[in-house]
Structures are given as C-alpha cells and as structure tokens.
Amino acid sequence: MLNFLKWFSLIYIVSSEAKASVIMSNKFSWLPLLTKSSVNAFHVCGNSDIMPNADSISRNFILGPEKDGYLFSSMLSVNDFNNMLKKLNREVAKQTIENAFKKSILWKYSEKNGLENLGIPVSIDLPFTYSIKDCIEGSPTNYGHQCSSKDLVSIQNCCSTKFPSPKLFWGDQHQYTLIYDPGNGIRLKIPNEKKHRFCNIYDLIQIK
Questions:
Q1: Residue 185 region, left (φ>0) first, then alpha (ψ -120 to 50), else beta?
Q2: Are 142 and 2 in contact (CB under 8 A)?
Q3: For the residues 61-87, what does the mean pLDDT come to?
Q4: pLDDT score recorded for residue 162
Q5: Which pTM value belongs to this model?
Q6: SS in 3 state form for the chain?
Q7: Is the pLDDT of residue 9 over 70?
Q8: CA-CA 20 to 30 A from 185: which of 6, 134, 194, 203?
Q9: CA 34 to chain centre
C-alpha cells in the first residue's frame, strides 16, 4: 500500500534538490561488466542505508550469506510511475506501466559468480482497480472509498492517500519479488534471506 502524500513530498525533494549521481567505471570491478552489456545507468539495491554514491555502495551493496548485490537497469522511475497514475485512466495506465516494467532487468553480482543477468520479470501484478485520475473524475478509491469535496486539492489528497503496491517477479518459481512501494520502501525479496533488500528507484546512477 502506498502513502502517496509521503510519496509526493519525497518526489518533490528528490526532483528539486538532488543532482544526478555519477560513478566512475573503475570504482567497482562489476561496473565495466555492466557497460560491456550496454548498461550505462542503473538503480541500486542494498540494506536500508543504501544511497546512490560510491561510499554507500561499498558498505551497503554486498550483503547476505552469499555476499551478493542486486541492481536494476531500465527500471520504471518513481516519478514516471506517479505521473502515469495521475494523468492516465485505469486501462491505459495499467498497460503503460506494465509495458514499462517489462523492460526492467534484474542483475546479481557476487565475487564467486561475477555479474549475472537475471532478465526481465516473468510476471507482473498490478492490483489497482482505479488510477488517481479515475478517482479524481468520480470513481471510488481502490479500497472503495468515495472522494467527494468541492475542494480539488482535498479530492486529490483523498484519491492519493492509499494505493496497492505493484509486484514484479523473476525466476520460474518467482524466487525474486520486487515490491514496488515507494511510500514505505521499494523492496526486493530474494531466495534464502528473511530480510528484504531496499532498492533506490528514486536516484538513477550514471556510469562514466
């Protein structure tokens, strides 16, 4: 479930204050492997402290008993996801979001096996029944509430308060699950680990 009020605030801060993150390709051994695969930008996952800079990645990227790290290329940004829900009605929004998610590639890196391309998601779950635009135009929220007010801002806030989280799955048995929940943390569930990896989908990292 997404808390859109919190989400909108974070979107504003990120878009208005954050500078583009850049990491030199010689900083980590796996970065040249990405560029050889025609990947020049990515979103990184790690523990809850992961940030889009080299110092944070060196501390918070490689985790778990297998000492591995995960990242995404061609992942739908939070800002674009938000705009689709605000500007498009349900059917068009679902199709547009699904098409964008289908391009997302999950990568795994470990010293043992190097960089592995886990491919695009095998399944995508978009549980929302109405977009924000639908709700503003009179449809109920995804939880059946009717947002009615003479104040447009109040209606927008009502329609944006709660939203079901999309889920993306990788692997034949859905071994990897991405819970796309910007309001409470976008999280990657991986095999044999109880703790989720947190994925920073707000800040795209450019490789130079």
A1: left
A2: no
A3: 95
A4: 66
A5: 0.85
A6: CCCHHHHHHHHHHHHHHCCCEEECCCCCCCHHHHHHCCCCEEEEEECCCCCCCHHHHHHHCCECCCCEEEEEECCCCHHHHHHHHHHCCHHHHHHHHHHHHCCCEEEEEECCCEEEECCCCCEEECCCCCCHHHHHCCCCCCCCCCCCCCCHHHHHHHHHCCCCCCEEEECCCCCEEEECCCCCCCEEECCCCCCCEEECCCCCEEEC
A7: no
A8: 134
A9: 19
Question: 152: which 2 tokens?
Answer: 């447009």
The whole-angstrom separation of Cα 20 and Cα 127 is 32
Is 25 within 8 Å of 191 (Cβ atoms)?
A: no
The count of C-alpha atoms lying within 13 angstroms of the C-alpha of 94, restricted to the half-sphere facing its C-beta, is 12
Q: Which pLDDT tens digit goes with each residue over 141-153?
A: 787 778 877 678 8
pLDDT of residue 20: 61
Name the amino acid, one letter, at 74: S
Joined together, the tokens standing for residue 154 give 């109040």
Cα torsion angle, 20, 26, 28, 29, sign: positive
pLDDT(3) > 50: no
**Interatomic CA distance for residues 208 and 201, integer angstroms:** 19
Place of tokens 């927008």: 156
Task: Give the rounded distance of the alpha carbon of 167 from its chain centre.
Answer: 10
pLDDT, position 4: 39
Query: Is the distance from CB of 155 to CB of 136 less than 8 angstroms?
Result: yes
What are the residue ranges spanned by the domains of the chain?
4-207
Alpha carbon 51 to its chain's center: 14
